[in-house]
Design a protein that fits this description.
Length: about 325
Protein backbone atom coordinates (compact mmCIF):
# COMPACT_ATOMS: atom_id res chain seq x y z
CA UNK A 1 0.00 0.00 0.00
CA UNK A 2 1.41 3.38 -1.01
CA UNK A 3 -0.96 5.64 0.97
CA UNK A 4 -0.83 5.33 4.77
CA UNK A 5 -2.96 7.12 7.36
CA UNK A 6 -1.57 7.91 10.84
CA UNK A 7 -2.56 4.51 12.24
CA UNK A 8 -0.79 2.78 9.37
CA UNK A 9 2.35 4.85 9.95
CA UNK A 10 2.38 3.74 13.60
CA UNK A 11 2.44 0.11 12.51
CA UNK A 12 5.62 0.65 10.47
CA UNK A 13 8.91 -0.72 11.82
CA UNK A 14 11.81 1.49 12.83
CA UNK A 15 14.89 1.32 10.58
CA UNK A 16 16.47 -2.14 10.67
CA UNK A 17 20.07 -3.20 9.96
CA UNK A 18 21.63 -6.13 8.13
CA UNK A 19 24.89 -5.18 9.89
CA UNK A 20 24.16 -3.16 13.00
CA UNK A 21 24.60 0.57 12.47
CA UNK A 22 26.40 -0.03 9.18
CA UNK A 23 24.37 -1.67 6.39
CA UNK A 24 20.66 -0.67 6.47
CA UNK A 25 18.15 -3.43 5.74
CA UNK A 26 15.92 -3.35 2.65
CA UNK A 27 17.87 -0.41 1.23
CA UNK A 28 20.51 0.31 -1.39
CA UNK A 29 23.96 1.28 -0.07
CA UNK A 30 27.26 2.04 -1.77
CA UNK A 31 30.89 1.47 -0.85
CA UNK A 32 33.35 3.29 -3.08
CA UNK A 33 37.06 3.96 -3.27
CA UNK A 34 40.18 3.78 -5.43
CA UNK A 35 40.98 0.65 -7.41
CA UNK A 36 43.19 -1.99 -5.83
CA UNK A 37 42.55 -1.01 -2.21
CA UNK A 38 40.60 -4.09 -1.12
CA UNK A 39 36.94 -3.14 -1.72
CA UNK A 40 36.00 -6.61 -2.96
CA UNK A 41 37.71 -8.35 -0.02
CA UNK A 42 35.93 -5.96 2.36
CA UNK A 43 32.53 -6.67 0.80
CA UNK A 44 33.12 -10.41 0.71
CA UNK A 45 33.96 -10.22 4.42
CA UNK A 46 30.70 -8.44 5.23
CA UNK A 47 28.69 -10.76 2.99
CA UNK A 48 30.22 -13.90 4.48
CA UNK A 49 29.46 -12.67 8.01
CA UNK A 50 25.80 -12.18 7.06
CA UNK A 51 25.74 -15.63 5.45
CA UNK A 52 27.19 -17.33 8.54
CA UNK A 53 25.69 -15.14 11.29
CA UNK A 54 29.18 -14.25 12.50
CA UNK A 55 29.48 -10.76 14.01
CA UNK A 56 31.16 -8.30 11.68
CA UNK A 57 33.77 -6.21 13.45
CA UNK A 58 31.89 -6.78 16.70
CA UNK A 59 28.54 -5.75 15.20
CA UNK A 60 25.49 -8.00 15.13
CA UNK A 61 24.20 -9.17 11.75
CA UNK A 62 20.86 -10.42 10.42
CA UNK A 63 21.83 -13.88 9.28
CA UNK A 64 20.50 -15.06 5.94
CA UNK A 65 21.42 -16.12 2.41
CA UNK A 66 23.78 -13.83 0.50
CA UNK A 67 24.17 -13.47 -3.26
CA UNK A 68 27.45 -11.93 -4.38
CA UNK A 69 27.30 -10.72 -8.00
CA UNK A 70 30.84 -10.94 -9.39
CA UNK A 71 30.28 -8.70 -12.40
CA UNK A 72 33.93 -8.76 -13.40
CA UNK A 73 34.02 -12.57 -13.44
CA UNK A 74 34.34 -15.42 -10.97
CA UNK A 75 38.12 -15.80 -11.22
CA UNK A 76 39.69 -15.67 -7.78
CA UNK A 77 36.52 -16.06 -5.70
CA UNK A 78 37.20 -19.70 -4.82
CA UNK A 79 40.48 -18.63 -3.21
CA UNK A 80 38.96 -15.52 -1.61
CA UNK A 81 36.10 -17.40 0.02
CA UNK A 82 38.34 -20.26 1.19
CA UNK A 83 40.78 -17.71 2.65
CA UNK A 84 37.94 -16.05 4.57
CA UNK A 85 36.70 -19.42 5.85
CA UNK A 86 40.17 -20.42 7.04
CA UNK A 87 40.78 -17.05 8.65
CA UNK A 88 37.51 -17.19 10.60
CA UNK A 89 37.19 -20.99 10.97
CA UNK A 90 33.65 -21.21 9.67
CA UNK A 91 32.16 -22.50 6.43
CA UNK A 92 29.96 -20.06 4.48
CA UNK A 93 27.38 -22.51 3.13
CA UNK A 94 24.76 -19.78 2.69
CA UNK A 95 27.01 -17.74 0.38
CA UNK A 96 26.03 -17.77 -3.30
CA UNK A 97 28.10 -16.45 -6.21
CA UNK A 98 26.52 -15.12 -9.41
CA UNK A 99 29.27 -14.94 -12.01
CA UNK A 100 27.92 -12.45 -14.53
CA UNK A 101 26.76 -8.80 -14.35
CA UNK A 102 23.16 -7.86 -13.59
CA UNK A 103 22.36 -5.01 -15.97
CA UNK A 104 20.34 -2.47 -14.00
CA UNK A 105 19.57 0.16 -16.62
CA UNK A 106 16.15 -0.61 -18.09
CA UNK A 107 17.10 -0.06 -21.72
CA UNK A 108 18.30 -2.08 -24.71
CA UNK A 109 17.10 -5.45 -23.46
CA UNK A 110 18.71 -5.13 -20.04
CA UNK A 111 15.44 -6.21 -18.39
CA UNK A 112 16.28 -9.72 -19.55
CA UNK A 113 19.42 -9.62 -17.41
CA UNK A 114 17.45 -8.71 -14.28
CA UNK A 115 14.73 -11.25 -15.06
CA UNK A 116 17.33 -14.01 -15.52
CA UNK A 117 18.95 -13.15 -12.19
CA UNK A 118 15.60 -13.14 -10.39
CA UNK A 119 14.62 -16.47 -11.98
CA UNK A 120 17.92 -18.12 -10.99
CA UNK A 121 17.68 -16.93 -7.40
CA UNK A 122 14.06 -18.07 -7.12
CA UNK A 123 14.98 -21.32 -8.83
CA UNK A 124 17.56 -21.97 -6.12
CA UNK A 125 14.74 -21.53 -3.58
CA UNK A 126 16.59 -18.88 -1.60
CA UNK A 127 15.48 -15.50 -0.31
CA UNK A 128 18.61 -13.33 -0.09
CA UNK A 129 19.09 -11.19 2.99
CA UNK A 130 21.94 -9.35 1.31
CA UNK A 131 23.06 -8.80 -2.29
CA UNK A 132 26.40 -7.31 -3.36
CA UNK A 133 26.78 -5.91 -6.88
CA UNK A 134 30.52 -5.78 -7.62
CA UNK A 135 31.13 -3.53 -9.45
CA UNK A 136 28.53 -0.91 -10.31
CA UNK A 137 30.40 -0.20 -13.55
CA UNK A 138 29.64 -3.71 -14.81
CA UNK A 139 25.94 -3.26 -14.02
CA UNK A 140 25.47 -0.04 -15.99
CA UNK A 141 24.28 -1.82 -19.12
CA UNK A 142 25.05 1.18 -21.34
CA UNK A 143 23.91 3.86 -18.89
CA UNK A 144 26.04 7.00 -18.56
CA UNK A 145 27.26 7.17 -14.95
CA UNK A 146 27.64 10.95 -15.30
CA UNK A 147 23.97 11.43 -16.22
CA UNK A 148 21.68 12.09 -13.23
CA UNK A 149 18.64 10.72 -15.05
CA UNK A 150 20.40 7.50 -15.97
CA UNK A 151 21.68 6.99 -12.42
CA UNK A 152 18.24 7.59 -10.92
CA UNK A 153 16.81 4.94 -13.27
CA UNK A 154 19.60 2.56 -12.30
CA UNK A 155 18.90 3.06 -8.59
CA UNK A 156 15.20 2.49 -9.21
CA UNK A 157 16.12 -0.88 -10.73
CA UNK A 158 18.38 -1.73 -7.78
CA UNK A 159 15.54 -0.90 -5.38
CA UNK A 160 13.15 -3.01 -7.44
CA UNK A 161 15.63 -5.90 -7.22
CA UNK A 162 15.80 -5.54 -3.45
CA UNK A 163 12.01 -5.54 -3.13
CA UNK A 164 11.87 -8.97 -4.75
CA UNK A 165 13.08 -10.51 -1.48
CA UNK A 166 13.21 -7.51 0.94
CA UNK A 167 16.98 -7.61 0.52
CA UNK A 168 19.64 -5.07 1.33
CA UNK A 169 21.87 -4.24 -1.64
CA UNK A 170 25.38 -2.80 -1.68
CA UNK A 171 26.90 -1.32 -4.83
CA UNK A 172 30.69 -1.50 -5.08
CA UNK A 173 31.88 1.58 -6.93
CA UNK A 174 34.98 3.60 -7.77
CA UNK A 175 36.01 6.98 -6.41
CA UNK A 176 36.49 10.00 -8.68
CA UNK A 177 39.17 9.82 -11.33
CA UNK A 178 41.76 11.98 -9.56
CA UNK A 179 44.02 10.09 -7.14
CA UNK A 180 43.08 12.43 -4.29
CA UNK A 181 39.31 12.18 -4.83
CA UNK A 182 37.29 11.00 -1.83
CA UNK A 183 33.90 11.23 -3.57
CA UNK A 184 32.08 8.58 -5.65
CA UNK A 185 32.59 8.70 -9.39
CA UNK A 186 29.70 9.86 -11.55
CA UNK A 187 26.49 11.86 -11.22
CA UNK A 188 25.38 13.39 -7.93
CA UNK A 189 22.08 11.46 -8.12
CA UNK A 190 24.02 8.30 -7.28
CA UNK A 191 25.31 9.61 -3.94
CA UNK A 192 22.00 11.32 -3.19
CA UNK A 193 19.89 8.24 -3.92
CA UNK A 194 21.49 5.60 -1.70
CA UNK A 195 20.67 5.14 1.98
CA UNK A 196 24.32 4.79 3.01
CA UNK A 197 27.61 5.41 1.32
CA UNK A 198 31.12 5.00 2.64
CA UNK A 199 34.64 5.62 1.36
CA UNK A 200 36.95 2.62 1.54
CA UNK A 201 40.72 2.98 1.24
CA UNK A 202 43.89 1.19 2.32
CA UNK A 203 47.08 -0.26 0.91
CA UNK A 204 45.36 -3.26 -0.70
CA UNK A 205 47.71 -5.68 1.08
CA UNK A 206 47.71 -5.30 4.87
CA UNK A 207 45.02 -2.85 6.02
CA UNK A 208 41.79 -1.14 5.03
CA UNK A 209 39.75 1.80 6.35
CA UNK A 210 36.06 2.60 5.92
CA UNK A 211 34.83 6.18 6.45
CA UNK A 212 31.06 6.71 6.55
CA UNK A 213 30.14 9.62 4.27
CA UNK A 214 26.34 9.25 4.55
CA UNK A 215 23.93 7.34 6.79
CA UNK A 216 20.37 8.38 5.97
CA UNK A 217 18.52 6.72 8.86
CA UNK A 218 21.04 6.83 11.68
CA UNK A 219 24.23 8.34 13.00
CA UNK A 220 27.23 7.89 10.71
CA UNK A 221 29.36 5.08 12.07
CA UNK A 222 32.85 5.87 13.31
CA UNK A 223 35.81 5.15 11.04
CA UNK A 224 36.50 1.40 10.93
CA UNK A 225 40.07 0.12 10.52
CA UNK A 226 40.81 -3.52 9.80
CA UNK A 227 43.73 -5.82 9.05
CA UNK A 228 44.01 -7.59 5.69
CA UNK A 229 45.79 -10.93 6.11
CA UNK A 230 47.47 -13.15 3.54
CA UNK A 231 46.10 -16.68 4.02
CA UNK A 232 48.06 -19.69 2.78
CA UNK A 233 45.71 -22.17 1.09
CA UNK A 234 48.34 -24.80 0.33
CA UNK A 235 49.59 -26.11 -3.03
CA UNK A 236 51.07 -22.72 -3.82
CA UNK A 237 47.73 -20.87 -3.52
CA UNK A 238 47.02 -17.90 -1.27
CA UNK A 239 44.52 -15.10 -0.96
CA UNK A 240 43.62 -12.18 1.30
CA UNK A 241 40.99 -11.93 4.03
CA UNK A 242 40.00 -9.18 6.45
CA UNK A 243 40.05 -9.91 10.18
CA UNK A 244 38.55 -8.27 13.24
CA UNK A 245 41.47 -6.42 14.78
CA UNK A 246 40.30 -2.93 15.66
CA UNK A 247 43.66 -1.19 16.10
CA UNK A 248 44.78 -1.37 12.50
CA UNK A 249 45.78 1.03 9.79
CA UNK A 250 47.41 4.42 10.16
CA UNK A 251 46.60 6.31 13.36
CA UNK A 252 45.18 9.80 13.29
CA UNK A 253 47.99 12.31 13.55
CA UNK A 254 47.56 15.28 15.84
CA UNK A 255 48.76 18.38 14.05
CA UNK A 256 47.78 21.98 13.59
CA UNK A 257 45.33 22.52 10.76
CA UNK A 258 44.05 25.88 9.56
CA UNK A 259 40.40 26.48 8.77
CA UNK A 260 41.57 27.44 5.27
CA UNK A 261 42.58 23.79 4.70
CA UNK A 262 39.24 22.54 5.98
CA UNK A 263 37.32 25.03 3.84
CA UNK A 264 39.28 24.04 0.72
CA UNK A 265 38.57 20.37 1.46
CA UNK A 266 34.82 21.01 1.79
CA UNK A 267 34.82 23.06 -1.42
CA UNK A 268 36.45 20.27 -3.38
CA UNK A 269 34.53 17.37 -1.86
CA UNK A 270 31.18 17.98 -3.51
CA UNK A 271 29.35 16.13 -0.73
CA UNK A 272 28.87 16.90 3.00
CA UNK A 273 31.68 15.54 5.18
CA UNK A 274 31.66 14.22 8.74
CA UNK A 275 34.37 15.15 11.28
CA UNK A 276 35.82 11.64 10.89
CA UNK A 277 36.13 12.04 7.14
CA UNK A 278 37.67 15.53 7.45
CA UNK A 279 40.16 14.22 10.01
CA UNK A 280 41.13 11.26 7.83
CA UNK A 281 41.58 13.47 4.76
CA UNK A 282 43.81 15.96 6.58
CA UNK A 283 45.66 13.57 8.94
CA UNK A 284 44.06 15.46 11.80
CA UNK A 285 42.60 14.69 15.21
CA UNK A 286 38.88 13.82 14.87
CA UNK A 287 37.83 15.74 17.98
CA UNK A 288 39.65 18.84 16.74
CA UNK A 289 37.94 18.48 13.35
CA UNK A 290 34.55 18.21 15.03
CA UNK A 291 35.21 21.28 17.17
CA UNK A 292 36.27 23.33 14.14
CA UNK A 293 33.15 22.34 12.21
CA UNK A 294 30.86 23.15 15.13
CA UNK A 295 32.48 26.56 15.53
CA UNK A 296 32.06 27.21 11.81
CA UNK A 297 28.39 26.23 12.10
CA UNK A 298 27.92 28.69 14.97
CA UNK A 299 29.25 31.54 12.88
CA UNK A 300 27.11 30.48 9.91
CA UNK A 301 29.84 29.30 7.56
CA UNK A 302 28.76 25.64 7.37
CA UNK A 303 25.52 23.76 7.94
CA UNK A 304 24.22 20.19 8.10
CA UNK A 305 22.01 19.45 5.06
CA UNK A 306 20.70 16.39 6.90
CA UNK A 307 20.75 17.15 10.63
CA UNK A 308 20.87 13.49 11.59
CA UNK A 309 23.89 12.68 9.44
CA UNK A 310 26.54 14.66 11.33
CA UNK A 311 28.00 15.80 7.99
CA UNK A 312 28.74 19.44 7.13
CA UNK A 313 28.75 21.47 3.91
CA UNK A 314 29.70 25.06 3.17
CA UNK A 315 26.92 27.66 3.17
CA UNK A 316 26.66 28.96 -0.41
CA UNK A 317 27.75 32.57 -0.78
CA UNK A 318 29.28 32.90 2.68
CA UNK A 319 32.30 35.24 2.83
CA UNK A 320 34.81 33.98 5.41
CA UNK A 321 36.55 36.25 7.88
CA UNK A 322 40.31 36.26 7.22
CA UNK A 323 40.97 35.73 10.93
CA UNK A 324 39.03 32.48 10.79
CA UNK A 325 41.30 31.17 8.05
CA UNK A 326 44.45 31.45 10.17
CA UNK A 327 46.04 28.43 11.82
CA UNK A 328 44.70 27.94 15.32
Amino acid sequence: MALLQREGISSMAYPQWVIDGTIPAESVSMVYGPSGKGKSFWQLDQAACVATGRKWNGRAVQQGPVVYVAGEGKSGYKARLEAWERQHRVRADNFWLYDEPVRLWSRDGNRNSMARFIDEVNGANIRPRYIVLDTLATCLGGANENDNGHMRELLDSAEELGRQWDSAITLVHHAGKSESSRTPRGAQALADGVAMHAYMHGDGRTWGVLDCTKQKDGDPFETIRRTLHTVDLGKGAASLAFADELKTGPREKKRRVSWREVRQLLQGAGIPMTPSLVAAALDWDRKAAGQALREAAQRGEVYQPDEGSGAYALVPGYTPNLADLATK
